Amino acid sequence: NVFVKRARAQNVPKSLKKRHRRENHIEYGKRILNQRIRK
Protein backbone atom coordinates (compact mmCIF):
# COMPACT_ATOMS: atom_id res chain seq x y z
CA ASN A 1 0.00 0.00 0.00
CA VAL A 2 2.75 2.45 0.88
CA PHE A 3 4.53 1.81 -2.41
CA VAL A 4 1.36 2.46 -4.41
CA LYS A 5 0.71 5.70 -2.51
CA ARG A 6 4.24 6.92 -3.25
CA ALA A 7 3.84 6.10 -6.94
CA ARG A 8 0.57 8.07 -7.10
CA ALA A 9 2.18 11.05 -5.37
CA GLN A 10 5.10 11.01 -7.83
CA ASN A 11 2.72 10.94 -10.81
CA VAL A 12 1.04 14.20 -9.74
CA PRO A 13 2.71 17.31 -11.20
CA LYS A 14 4.26 19.73 -8.70
CA SER A 15 2.19 22.63 -10.08
CA LEU A 16 -1.05 20.80 -9.22
CA LYS A 17 0.24 20.02 -5.74
CA LYS A 18 1.03 23.69 -5.06
CA ARG A 19 -2.26 25.00 -6.50
CA HIS A 20 -4.65 22.51 -4.92
CA ARG A 21 -2.87 21.28 -1.82
CA ARG A 22 -5.97 21.36 0.38
CA GLU A 23 -8.29 19.77 -2.20
CA ASN A 24 -5.77 17.01 -2.95
CA HIS A 25 -5.18 16.43 0.76
CA ILE A 26 -8.92 16.04 1.39
CA GLU A 27 -9.32 13.67 -1.59
CA TYR A 28 -6.27 11.72 -0.40
CA GLY A 29 -7.83 11.31 3.06
CA LYS A 30 -11.11 10.17 1.49
CA ARG A 31 -9.23 7.57 -0.57
CA ILE A 32 -7.55 6.19 2.55
CA LEU A 33 -10.87 6.04 4.41
CA ASN A 34 -12.52 4.28 1.46
CA GLN A 35 -9.69 1.73 1.30
CA ARG A 36 -10.02 1.02 5.03
CA ILE A 37 -13.81 0.61 4.77
CA ARG A 38 -13.53 -1.72 1.74
CA LYS A 39 -11.10 -3.96 3.62
Fraction in beta strands: under 5%
Number of strands: 0
Total of DSSP H or I helical runs spanning 4+ residues: 3
What is the multimeric organization of the chains shown? single chain
Short description:
With 39 residues, the protein is an all-alpha fold. It has three helices and no strands.
Q: What can you see in these coordinates?
A:
The chain is mainly alpha-helical. It has one domain (2-38). The chain has helices spanning 2-11, 14-19, 21-38. It starts with a helix and ends with a helix. The mean pLDDT is 64.
Q: Topology of this protein?
A:
Layout: H1 2-11, H2 14-19, H3 21-38
Short key terms for the protein model shown above:
single chain, 39 residues, mainly alpha, 3 helices, 0% strand, flat
